[in-house]
Amino acid sequence: MSVDLRRAAGTAAAVAITAHLVATSLFNTPDSFNLDLRRYVGGWTVPGWRFFAPNPGVQNVHLLVRTRGGSTRTAPSDWVDVTPTIRHGFWNVLMNPKSRGPKALFDAMQQLSVMKANYSQFDWMVSSTAYELVRDAASGLVSGGDSHEFQFLLMNYFPAAPPEKRMQPILVSRWEGRFHA
Length: 181
Fold this sequence. Notes:
Blueprint: H1 3-27, E1 60-68, E2 80-81, H2 100-117, H3 122-126, H4 129-141, E3 149-157, E4 167-172, E5 176-177
Antiparallel strand pairs: 1-2, 1-3, 3-4, 3-5
Helix pairs in contact: 2-4
């Protein structure tokens, strides 16, 4: 291959990559939802990275649990945050097998949040698969030797909100027996 041909191929590749990067940057600006770049890019696909858009995550959902003894006259314990935590390390980028359980619980809690936001009836929420998953997870996370019943609370926590508006209860369950089949 001649030097001129190599130089032309290198220049064409550099121009194409630069055009692609510029088009990608323009297409991913906040005002680019209605920007049609197809007429400028000659038909190739421009990646659109809209992570979590248009509804980015602004809150954390926490699972709190309290217990009481066998008698309904027994005073309940204080609420305890039992939300599973996941340690994040370097290798989690490549493989994270311990994330599936907490992710399933998080998704179920989010589903209950959506139900509550859409004014679902409590009886319907209690019969949902999401409620059953959260109930069973809470039952497994409960500690307390002689407690016979537990209750869970889903709480939204908004870290960026003013202090008086950071916590918003989503759902307080009914009193549940300690173990479910």
